[in-house]
Amino acid sequence: MPLQKQEFSFPGQTAEQILLIAYGTLLELGWIPKYAGPAAIAGYTPRGWNKNDDEVLIESAEGVLIVTSSPGHNETFDLGGKNKKPIKDFMSTFERVKGSGVKPEWVEELEKLRKQTVETATAQQQAEELHEVGHFRGSNLYVTYSIIAINIAVFILMAIDGAGVFDADGYTHVRWGSNYTALTLSGDWWRLITCMFIHFGIIHLAMNTYALYMAGIYLEPMLGKTRFIGAYLCTGVIASIASLWWHSEGVNSAGASGAIFGMYGVFLALLFTNLIPKQIRGALLQSIGVFVVFNLIFGMKAGVDNAAHVGGLVSGIIIGFVFYPMLKK
């Protein structure tokens, strides 16, 4: 990309004075001051119907002004020296503004622009750090979408078989593989897995689908597909075992919520480490913490298998701490 760079001398002027006059010059020209640092301002010329905006970088030092002009339209060559014109326009206006003196409001406006620049840079840095940790660029949610698709497909097939869309028929759920104590403990161990893909009604399915999607957005790219599948199945099975242990009188349990609580447990564990940038960690920890606490309280009502929720959550936290050294490496 072609650029033009010229240096000008202004003896007796401090770096801050030069920068303030440069700020006023941008305003006088109608150019847009976009970023500012301790000794530099980046401004952009207005965009027209037949031209893109050009970037003009102004750097200052004691008695020195450096102006760099670069096109914003990806040109390979500066044919005819068009890129010199912004510098020429800037310097002619700079001399005029310099003769008028610095306006008091420029000091406040320049300082405000500097603060905004720092905030923007900080936000970009945090986003970059999060992308680096979470591997979000170019990532996909194939595993998350596949689990959701299986849950929906099973629900539709069960509804056709008479399981009920809103009011669940427990007998049909037992035939399709729910975690029914009498059968699971008498040899149907596979029910510990199949029950994760069975739901008691469309509301149950919708809530779990949303919760799984929100967890998968972060965890599938961060953990990788193999760890994500392993954690999901492992916490789901442990949640099913916890349900059997707690309900010693017997239970007919199903749903993905035990595994989903497990994934949120994994996320919580990672948030308690330094894997995720500190500035982002607090907001995520708060939102996930509220979700977990609310659903545990909601799970105390009759008909909700809170034992599976707790079993999944605790096992997920343990697995998260096990994953941490590998993810950190």
Ends: how far apart?
38 Å
Structural class: alpha+beta
Given the C-alpha coordinates, what overall shape results?
Answer: elongated
Query: Helical amount among residues, as a percent range?
Result: 55-70%
**Rounded average pLDDT:** 86
The topology string of helices and strands comes to: EHEEEEHHHHEHHHHEHHH
Describe the structure.
- This protein is α+β, with helices and mostly antiparallel strands.
- It has 12 helices and 7 strands.
- The chain has a 5-stranded antiparallel β-sheet.
- It is elongated and about 95 Å long.
Quick summary:
This protein has helices at residues 15-29, 85-100, 104-134, 142-160, 170-176, 181-184, 191-194, 202-223, 225-246, 257-271, 278-298, 306-328; strands at 4-9, 32-37, 40-44, 55-61, 64-70, 179-180, 252-253.
Question: What is the strand and helix layout of this fold?
Answer:
Elements: E1 4-9, H1 15-29, E2 32-37, E3 40-44, E4 55-61, E5 64-70, H2 85-100, H3 104-134, H4 142-160, H5 170-176, E6 179-180, H6 181-184, H7 191-194, H8 202-223, H9 225-246, E7 252-253, H10 257-271, H11 278-298, H12 306-328
Antiparallel strand pairs: 1-5, 2-3, 3-4, 4-5, 6-7
Observed structural traits:
329 residues, alpha+beta, two-stranded antiparallel sheet, 12 helices, 7 strands, 11% strand
